[in-house]
Amino acid sequence: MLRRKARRAQEDDHGDPLDAAQERRVRAVLALGGVPQTDLPDGVQQVRLRLLERAAKGYEAPRDVSAWAAVVASNLAMDWHRAQRRQERIGERLASLRQLEHPSGEDSSVLSLAVAQGLDELPDAQRQVLVLRFYADLPVRSIAQELGVPEGTVKSRLHTAVRALRARLHEDEVV
Amino acid sequence: MTAGHETHGEYDGPDALMAAITGEPLPDGAGAELRAEHRAAEADVALLREQLGMIGDALAEEQALEATAPVRRPRARRPRRTAPRAPRNRRAVRRFALAGLAVAAVGGVFSGMIWLVGQAGGGADDAGASSAEAGGKAADSAAGSPFSSPGYLACTRLVAEGDVTAVQRVAGEAGQERITLHVTRSYTPERTKPQLTLTVDEEALSAPLRKGDHVLVAVPRHASTPDYVLTGEKAIARERAALARALPEASAVPCE
């Protein structure tokens, strides 16, 4: 039974509970949450560990491993902030990246930086739901259930966060 | 539930932005103004979603040129020892330039983004100029090197001299070494971190690097590894002279 459940949680042939796409998604959620680059591998390992622990305890594998992993990663980012009392300024990190390919043209980097800097300014709780909603593409209801908060709270945080980012974008005349 | 039914926190009543966020429909009786707001909000939310995807994917990647961060696996590349680097994509350059402007506009400080300042002056050319004058023949002998080409220099994000303080073989990557460089002189950009970690393809080296070696390295703007690693005081001295002449011109040359 345990082996069967563990196997269900393991999507690839190498026994890794996260496939490459899921790992990449976890890394992105952690990074968007402000976890520094150097700590991303640890964060990914934490997510793997929790997934394996679930299987070891006999729990059913998450129905949607990607969504589950994104929520766990976002919570890890929140915990990381609380423990470390600092976060990586992703606007600066993004600026240091050499390439950000985008078919729409050269203005995309300006836009990305504006968004990244806007993210830096958001309270952690708002950033968390924003990332889960628009990066991980989770419905509001799922976010509320996973985080254990009312839907209205999720909506309120999203509304405030998106409004702030819109204001920043338009103030900067980026769009 | 429609967006108009949600009342919580800072919004109340029909809310175009909330509808765009949740994907819920507007109330049946929504007027033209609200629908216009909704369209604008949907466009912004779509843009935000797209940008988060791009940023997340970009941040999820590892960095190569970082003092402490893990180093990105580079593409295998043959060294270019004589020919100037081919012009690169103009659009990419403009994107990068705009990115720099954006950072400057918000007053951000970023040390990782390497920027070609390139005007004569600063640390790049003082000693190099005297070297060029004193060692005219030697400088001439370097005329065919990449460092004598403004076009090549315009397309680099790092040109620096330094002392190798550590050499490590990259685990699982045959033919690659990770070196730690104590920078003694940065040409491009004018200032950089005092310690850099670089992954070097062994095929770019004429001889294995060792701790204590003095090197001159060049990293193209869109590469993760140096395409030029030069060791030896005499050889580097010749390149200094070439750099002193070419760097001022490089600032006026677009990287195309």
Automatic annotation (TrEMBL), chain A:
Keyword Nucleotide-binding: no
Record's keyword annotation contains Ion transport: no
CDD domains found in the cross-reference section: Sigma70_r4 (cd06171)
Annotated segments matching region Disordered: 1-22
PANTHER family: ECF RNA POLYMERASE SIGMA FACTOR SIGL (PTHR43133:SF52), RNA POLYMERASE ECF-TYPE SIGMA FACTO (PTHR43133)
Basic and acidic residues composition-biased segments: 8-22
NCBIfam families: sigma70-ECF (TIGR02937)
The protein, known as: Sigma-70 family RNA polymerase sigma factor
InterPro entries linked: RNA_pol_sigma-70-like, RNA_pol_sigma-70_dom, RNA_pol_sigma70_r4, RNA_pol_sigma_r2, RNA_pol_sigma_r3/r4-like, WH-like_DNA-bd_sf
Keyword vocabulary terms for this entry: DNA-binding, Sigma factor, Transcription, Transcription regulation
Family under the similarity heading: Belongs to the sigma-70 factor family. ECF subfamily.
Pfam families: Sigma70_r4
RNA polymerase sigma-70 region domain: residues covered: 119-167
TrEMBL record, chain B:
Regions that span the bilayer: 96-117
Biased composition (Basic residues): 72-89
Domain of life from the UniProt record: Bacteria
Feature: compositional bias, Low complexity: 126-145
Keyword annotations of the record: Membrane, Transmembrane, Transmembrane helix
Ranges where the record places region Disordered: 66-89, 125-145
UniProt protein name: DUF5667 domain-containing protein
Source species: Streptomyces cylindrosporus
